[in-house]
Predict the structure.
Amino acid sequence: MNISIITIAKKERSLYDPLYQEQMKMISRFAKVDDIELFPKEIVKAHSISAEASQAAYSKLLSPMLGKNYSIALHPEGKKLDSFAFSKLISDKISLQFFIGGAYGFEKSFVEQCDSVISLSELTMSHKIAKAVLLEQIYRAYSLLANHPYHK
């Protein structure tokens, strides 16, 4: 199993890095995780223009990645799943890619091109927190699927 987490974010050190590394190490029993952060100059420029320009820049960057693997967008209006439903969603996939949007979220057209759209919470959270929550849920899902006691 291969999983890519693709985030619109500046590559920078953060206090969350050790947490991400620990979570990815735990997941490595079940799957390989690639953590990809993208923030090219086109997005920097779009952020200085408007929210709509930013969303369009995200779509332009990420749309070519769709269709290669099972794609899941994290979006506030996405389906709310509990851990069991999330584990069922990813259970039979060979290769997954999760998309975490930038400050302005995704365009509707990008979200509609994804295979699934989920919401991690009713709350708004930074991409750093969203990534930590997503990694936790990925590990929990594989633990459930493997009948590992972690999920209890």
Q: What stands out?
A: The chain has a mean pLDDT of 94. The longest strand covers residues 70-80.
